[in-house]
Hints:
The protein has 5 helices and no strands. The chain is mainly alpha-helical and 126 residues long. The chain folds into 2 domains: 1-84; 87-126.
Amino acid sequence: MIKEENVKIITLSFVAAGFLTAFVVRILFELLAVYSGMVAMAYGQEWVRHGVPVLVGLGVFLFLQLREKTRIWAHEVVVEVRKVVWPSRQATLGMTVLVCIILMISGFVLGVFDLASNAVVNFIID
């Protein structure tokens, strides 16, 4: 059903999702500890500060890894991403240079408009 070559990519993606979830839970705990005394008391304990985010991250990883529907969906995502035709290095460089030039021109035009509107407003005020 799921090709063996995609299993490593899918597992690594699920591990990354678990780490990100643990990181977000840790940040939310810190934020809630500032505003809630009860959360601050719990957050002061080492096992809560480190254990809860790890357990939530591990739970997310296990939920994603052990749920068949999620693994099939992830496999389909990997298959579709492999079908994408990525631009060459030269095409990417050319598009990046073009975007930078357009940004500089836009910045210049907006700067001129800003100076002109500033002069008009100062003229009206004075």
